[in-house]
Specification:
five-stranded antiparallel sheet, alpha+beta, globular, single chain
Length: 687
């Protein structure tokens, strides 16, 4: 979160506070359209609010995390109420959800947390679209889906789309069976409104992604191997009962430990097992079977499901991490468990005690068996582990120690719940005690895992935040040095070691981001000598040596690159090769003004030559010479170049994307109108 999301959000906040929309980030990977990066938060209203009013710091990104956890509880509670669960069961379900394996295991991935936050809201209001003849639900569902699209990880939205399609098909069939054309037409109208509103609200980010798709590595060159990276392996299923085991021995789990946790409470998991065997309403069945399918997909290369989705299902071939599917497994399993608990508390409180007792005794027996087996076969150094390795990121503890301790804790929790089931006959007292046990269980087990996946104790928030304050604010002039002379490592501190140049306000050819231009990556990795020579220039430089891109391999082989040599694609090279370019030592190009999306340069040259800006060329970049637009060329696979006439000139490199600006106004206008209509509807409903 500190290496990726904080620098990006810090930059977005700086833009907004300086009266700019975050269109272009010039500081990373020789510049990229940050508005096209779905993970940046550039289109996310909550990032706008935090960035504009407070700016981003260690504290504000922490606040962003916690507020989403809290909101997720509200959304889960509302969804449970919509599914006709009682208040106590809805409360327990919400508690289990916000302390589940996604929120704990993926705490560092704020986009995962945001997706998990808004997912229950979208499902909730879509079910209301299906069941209530109120068009206002289409507005609400669209807003929450918009928040999920703009703030979350795209994979979750793609998977959610198919869940909503299943609900849509089911209800269409339902209305057709009833032969009620009026209700079917109204249902379709509500869905059309929901779809149109979502598109209008998300116009900015959707257009941004569409424009970027031809430029970025992720689209078009994404392979099955990448799509299978970091699964929720079958071994990780131990996390349903023993989540503390998953933060050790990555080799055993064959995945990253942030991707191996699907815990939502050992007692709730027991209720889920019991809930499989009872009759359920169709909404719960859909959630359950979709969750089961998602579990199979989350296994990655252990089963053929993810490969099938990659090859044959639209949009399933553009994201990594099969483990993302486990969120839908958690949702499906959790609500089956909640439904069983609801039936137990309200219909079969006395009748079902016997089966619950048998299940608890079986679970207790299994936990005891685990403990005895480990103690028999392994010297676990229990006292040393308890003294040195709990509630901290331990480098010395073992997988078996974690399993042993977790089994002991779960045994105590299940044992206490067993006593409640055995002794407490009054329903209201049983509910209160159950909530207390659930809270203790979930919070304690979260604290066991969090030193590994949530927080970092070696450096304090105060010192880390003070480090950020050392950097310049706003957008100061760029240093008049070669890019190769800029050293970001001197500003590394504690958790800050990636993307620090964004804080430093110095342009870098490097960057820690999965959103990378194909041209830039090819330039950097396939022609490393050319790349090294090219960044041995200032941000704007002049040259008179132009070559066909086909010659790169020859130059690479002979290692005869110079910093003032540029290579162009065949079509552009044909336009340039017949012209006479001459560069002299007395010629100069001086950067006189800089902002993230504009560079103004004063030049004085005796002859015509090529002027180049060390930024990636992209849709929206214009070059104006003496206020007249000129043709923009792409050099070295990615850079912005233009023909500079002789004499004194003012050259403006400006990023202006009119389509994105229009989409921004459409998004903001639709959001404002939708919120006004929701408030009016709420006031009318009260009256």
């Amino acid at each position: 979160m500190i290496d990726c999301y904080l620098p990006w959000r810090y930059f977005i906040g700086e833009c907004l506070q300086n009266g700019k929309f975050p269109f272009w980030n010039p500081y990373q990977n020789l510049g990229y359209p940050i508005h096209s990066d779905p993970s940046s938060g550039a289109w996310y209203p909550i990032v706008w609010l935090i960035g504009y009013f407070w700016g981003y710091s260690i504290y504000s990104i922490g606040f962003e995390f916690w507020i989403h956890v809290f909101i997720a509880a509200i959304g889960t509670y509302k969804l449970a109420i919509t599914l006709k669960l009682s208040n106590p069961v809805s409360f327990i379900t919400a508690l289990c959800y916000i302390l589940c394996g996604i929120f704990i295991g993926n705490s560092q991935h704020i986009t995962y947390v945001i997706s998990a936050c808004w997912l229950p809201f979208v499902i909730n209001y879509y079910l209301k679209i299906c069941n209530e003849e109120k068009y206002i639900n289409s507005f609400k569902a669209a807003i929450f889906l918009f928040l999920m699209i703009t703030g979350g990880y795209p994979a979750f939205t793609i998977i959610l789309f198919y869940l909503l399609v299943i609900f849509f098909i089911y209800y269409c069939i339902h209305f057709l069976k009833l032969k009620n054309k009026t209700d079917l037409v109204k249902f379709l109208a509500r869905n059309v409104l929901f779809l149109i509103l979502t598109i209008l609200l998300s116009a900015g980010i959707l257009l941004s992604i569409y424009e970027a798709s031809p430029y970025i590595t992720r689209i078009g060159q994404f392979t099955l191997t990448k799509a299978l990276f970091c699964p929720f392996s079958p071994q990780s299923c131990i996390s349903f009962i023993l989540p503390f085991a998953t933060v050790k021995n990555i080799e055993f789990f064959s995945t990253d430990f942030s991707m191996s946790n699907a815990y939502f409470g050992i007692l709730m998991f027991l209720f889920f097992i019991l809930g499989i065997f009872i009759k359920k309403p169709f909404q719960f069945k859909i959630l359950f079977y979709f969750g089961l399918f998602a579990l199979a997909a989350s296994f990655g290369n252990y089963l053929p499901v993810r490969e099938f989705l990659f090859n044959y299902v639209p949009m399933m071939n553009i994201f990594r991490f099969p483990s993302v599917f486990r969120l839908f497994t958690i949702i499906g399993f959790l609500f089956i468990a909640a439904y069983w608990l609801e039936k137990f508390l309200n219909n079969n409180f006395d009748k079902s005690r016997k089966s619950l007792k048998i299940s608890l005794i079986t679970l207790i027996s299994l936990l005891i068996l685990f403990i005895l087996t480990i103690l028999f076969y392994e010297n676990t150094a229990v006292f040393s582990f308890l003294q040195n390795d709990l509630f901290t990121f331990s480098k010395t503890s073992s997988l078996l120690q974690h399993i042993l301790f977790q089994c002991a804790i779960q045994l105590v929790i299940v044992g206490v719940f067993m006593l409640i089931v055995w002794k407490v006959k009054e329903r209201s007292k049983f509910i209160k005690y159950t909530i207390v046990v659930f809270a203790i269980e979930l919070i304690f087990n979260a604290q066991l895992n969090e030193p590994y996946t949530t927080y970092y104790r070696e450096f304090s928030a105060k010192n880390s935040n003070n480090h950020i304050k050392k950097f310049p604010s706003g957008f100061p002039p760029l240093p008049d040095v070669k890019l190769s002379d800029i050293n970001s490592s001197e500003l590394y501190y504690g958790p800050f070691w990636k993307n620090v140049n964004i804080f430093q306000k110095k342009i870098s050819p490097e960057g820690f981001n999965s959103f990378v231009f194909t041209g830039h990556e090819y330039f950097k990795e396939q022609s490393p000598l050319l790349f090294k020579k090219t960044i041995d220039n200032k941000i704007v430089f002049l040259c008179d040596n132009v070559f066909d891109e086909k010659d790169i391999k020859v130059f690479e082989k002979d290692s005869v690159y110079k910093s003032n040599r540029l290579f162009f694609k065949e079509k552009e090279f044909e336009q340039l090769k017949g012209q006479s370019f001459i560069n002299k030592n007395s010629d100069y190009a001086k950067l006189v003004y800089f902002s993230p999306d504009s560079f103004i340069v004063k030049t004085n040259t005796e002859n015509k030559q090529i002027i180049t800006l060390l930024q990636n060329n992209y849709t929206g970049w214009e070059v104006l010479i003496n206020q007249k637009s000129v043709k923009v060329y792409t050099s070295n696979n990615s850079l912005i170049s233009a023909i500079l006439p002789a004499g004194k000139n003012t050259v403006c490199f400006i990023y202006r994307n009119k389509g994105i600006k229009i989409a921004l106004w459409i998004s903001v206008g639709t959001l404002g109108l939708s919120l006004i209509l929701i408030l009016i509807n709420k006031r009318i409903a009260k009256n």
